[in-house]
Amino acid sequence: MLALSILSTSVWADLAPSKPDPLQSGDQVSNAFRKYVQDAPGSEPVLENRTLTYSYAIESDSASEILLRYGNGSAEVLDKKLAVIASISKTGERRAIPADAVEHWMPKTELKPGMKWSFENHWESPASNESAYVCRFDGEFKARSSASERDVSINGQIVRLPVTVVDIEGKTYLQVCEGAVPYTRERRVYSKDLHLVLEHEYLSRDPFGKLFEGWLQTVTAVTTKNRL
């Protein structure tokens, strides 16, 4: 029995996928996207049945930026803590997000389970397409982290990875203009092994519970280039 046990353990060790490396230039990430809908103001939002799928490639991974290229030619630019800092149009025009408006959702120190922190962002937008008034938005958020696990398809193999779940709650105050103050709730599931957000859930509601916007993005598969 001992010999059989040792043999079984050895076979499993040979078959088990090794710990993945962080994503690199040329790697591909497939995603599923579903929107939240609401039957009536105040009711609990639910995910609609329709699922959209899309993918992006890691086109470059410099010392300070990560570029994600989508199938239509557009791209997002992230900093090393996975905050979106710029967008690139299909024609190649780069538009930087103002520094105050960037959502720096990770803590300033290394992200680990069991942490609590807060952050802010600030941005401006015209009151309407024809208005000369500019509205100012001041967001205040609190975050906490916890440990969990997720199964991920990497090169066709299901790999169970340790993850850090980041739950974020906050509100946005509207200055100059008048309007409802949105309350937001986010959840990001981060894999340190892949340096990738595997899930991103977002819900925004007014003080009476009416849904402004809500969606869930989930990584469905990862394909690495020239690596096991």
Write the layout of secondary structure elements.
Elements: H1 2-15, E1 28-37, E2 46-47, E3 52-61, E4 65-70, E5 75-79, E6 84-88, E7 94-96, E8 116-126, E9 134-154, E10 157-175, E11 183-191, E12 196-205, E13 211-223
Antiparallel strand pairs: 1-2, 1-3, 1-13, 3-4, 4-5, 5-6, 6-7, 8-9, 9-10, 10-11, 11-12, 12-13
Architecture overview:
With 228 residues, this protein is mainly β. It is built from one helix and 13 strands, in the order αβββββββββββββ. Strands 1, 2, 3, 4, 5, 6, 7, 8, 9, 10, 11, 12 and 13 form a 13-stranded antiparallel sheet that branches. A hairpin with a 4-residue loop joins β5 (75-79) and β6 (84-88). Residues 1-16 have low confidence and may be disordered.
Summed over residues and divided by their number, the pLDDT gives a mean of 88
Question: What structural class is derived from the secondary structure elements?
Answer: mainly beta
Q: What is the β-strand count?
A: 13
Molecular shape: globular
End-to-end CA span: 33 Å
Q: Which spans of ≥5 residues are poorly predicted at pLDDT below 50?
A: 1-16
The major pleated sheet works out as:
13 strands, antiparallel
Percentage of residues in helical conformation: under 10%
Number of helices: 1
Order of helices and strands: HEEEEEEEEEEEEE
Strand portion: over 45%
